[in-house]
Amino acid sequence: MFQDTISTQPVIEAERFILRPLRKSDAGLIAMYTADKRVAEGTRAIPHPLPPGATESYITRAMSDTRSEDVWALDGSAQGLAEVLGVVSLTHLDDNQSEVGFWVGPGFWNTGFASEAVAALVEANPHKARTLFAEVFQDNPGSARVLTNAGFEYLGDAESWSVARGARVPTWTYLKKMA
Q1: What region holds the N-acetyltransferase domain (predicted)?
Q2: Any residues with CB less than 8 A from the CB of 75 and at least 6 apart, and which?
Q3: Among candidates 59, 11, 43, which has minimal Cα distance to 161?
Q4: Which of 43, 63, 88, 121 sits in a 20 to 30 Å window from 146, CA-based?
Q5: What is the pTM of this model?
Q6: pLDDT band, very low/low/confident/very high, at 6 (cuts 50, 70, 90)
């Protein structure tokens, strides 16, 4: 039987959805959400406009056994919500540290889904990281609140490249000590 996810990622329970590894069938909803310029410009890596095949390539990388980033879909289907509300990720860094990333579809902004997903991921700490990092663009205070709600502390200002914006963008960097 064909299995469309090769993953040792755990399924993580949240109150209104589960966090589960991505699967190929997520491509349509992910492409629809990430084609929105506002979503793309809120991230470092999502291009705008979204090129053909970009979503499928992203999912293939997320499902690879040699990946350095674990990506979970916020799946609300058991509660009558969409099968993909957004994604949350952890990227392995050096020295037992990981970086958190997240976005939710625009139709779910201001619902608390991002806060709930990040809090569930932090609580589960599937990488067994001693420190978690995250950064948000300074023109996205909502994402900064998601991090502070999950116990992250402001570390400092920096800047990161945004593919969608084609420019370096000022960021706020956050840290959460896990042990």
Answers
A1: 30-179
A2: 17, 18, 19, 20, 83, 84, 85
A3: 43
A4: 63
A5: 0.93
A6: very low
DSSP 150: T
Task: Name beta bridge partners: 174.
Answer: 134, 154
Cα separation, 124 vs 103, in Å, equals 19
Q: Are 26 and 7 in contact (CB under 8 A)?
A: no
Any residues with CB less than 8 A from the CB of 174 and at least 6 apart, and which? 133, 134, 135, 136, 144, 147, 148, 152, 153, 154, 155
Output the pLDDT for position 8: 82
What pLDDT does residue 5 have?
39
Q: Which residues pair with 12 in a beta bridge?
A: 19
Structure tokens at 158: 């920096």
